[in-house]
Amino acid sequence: MTGQHRIVVLGAGYAGLAAAGRLAKKARGAEITVVDASSRFVERVRLHQQAAGQQIPVWDLRELLTSKKIHFVCARATKIDTEGKRVLLDNAMPLAYDALVYALGSIGDSNGVPGVAEHAYSVSTPADVDRFQPPRGRIVVVGAGSTGIELAAELAESQPDSRILLLSPDEPGAWLSPKARAHIRRTLERLGVEIHSDAKVIEVTDDGVRLADGSLIEAAATVWTAGFAVPDLAARSGIAVDRTGRVLTDPALRSLSHPEIHAAGDSAVVAGPGGRELRMACATALPTGKHAADAVVARLRGAEPGPLRFRYVMQCLSLGRHDAVVQLLRADDAPARIVLTGRTGAWVKERIVRGAGWTARH
Ligand SMILES: Cc1cc2nc3c(=O)[nH]c(=O)nc-3n(C[C@H](O)[C@H](O)[C@H](O)COP(=O)(O)OP(=O)(O)OC[C@H]3O[C@@H](n4cnc5c(N)ncnc54)[C@H](O)[C@@H]3O)c2cc1C
């Protein structure tokens, strides 16, 4: 390492922080700069808790990073000038790089359903949650993926006087084992959540949602959790992306079009076990962030970076503060038979969330 390499990490979520921390340890002598539009690291996997009125931990990024001798720039990246190897920022001078880690995460997606942008809330990002004040009365949660399930349970537990409806075309947790699915349904019902598992929402209005069968469900608030999108920065900057805008990568997480750029976390397409794309998760963001950093270091040392080796272990869904489902997984993400539930599940889930935050910060 010559000592003059400039490494820029875009995004200080789980992937970006994991990459930056690893670089600070391994790329000694390099100048490492992290850019994020926010000055705080919020544990995104707890946003449903914050939406239900709980205080969640928040860290000051500048403090966190400067203590590791990493520069921090609080700015929004507006373009990557791949020819000039510079990142253009909304409030500061362009940042030059020799290597770039692209880790801009994801945001809520309306899936093109009319009215979502205008009338629905989201819990996808800290800014979304800042806008959401759960009203008393009927709250419709659209989408029964992990975020919708966790949010419905959390709201029902913290606001027993409200009526929480969970709407989706599928059974909540449809991708999990029968035991996990049954526990999710039982627990949501115990908490008073009304489950509509054959409901396809085709429009959100100021008063509620319209379903494909023509019926209307009135709501004091609608929260849309049915899908994630990614920032369009890579696509706008001419970097090879898939149709959703995620950066296409090789097994070492290098951009297919720009080998000096590595991508990790939700905003990257990464091949996992069996060639299946890794799903968007904190559980994939942390190891891909670390691997992107290792690949940058290998390249700067003139070595060929190795492929990411990843296997799934478990998926944890909280069901309020006292219950959860911990689904053990096969290497390729298929559900195994073992499922932890109840207080044991909640204890494991809380440890995993704390551990993920700790890993990102350290
Ligand atoms: C409510 C909720 C619960 C979840 N629970 C779980 C869970 O239990 N387990 C799990 O594995 N996953 C969970 N997830 C998913 C998980 O949070 C994400 O997969 C993970 O945060 C992805 O990490 P990341 O680093 O790729 O992106 P992020 O954590 O989203 O970080 C991206 C960062 O990039 C910054 N950024 C974006 N655009 C710009 C720009 N143009 N310029 C500068 N900065 C920018 C953002 O400010 C952000 O800090 C949950 C998600 C939500 C919303």
UniProtKB/TrEMBL annotation:
It holds the Pfam family Pyr_redox_2. InterPro entries: FAD/NAD-bd_sf, FAD/NAD-binding_dom, NADH-Q_oxidoreductase. Keywords: FAD, Flavoprotein, Oxidoreductase. It comes from the Bacteria. One of its GO terms (molecular function) is NAD(P)H dehydrogenase (quinone) activity. Residues 6-273 form the FAD/NAD(P)-binding domain. Its cofactor is FAD. GO terms for biological process: aerobic electron transport chain. Belongs to the NADH dehydrogenase family. This is NADH dehydrogenase FAD-containing subunit. It comes from Nocardia tenerifensis.
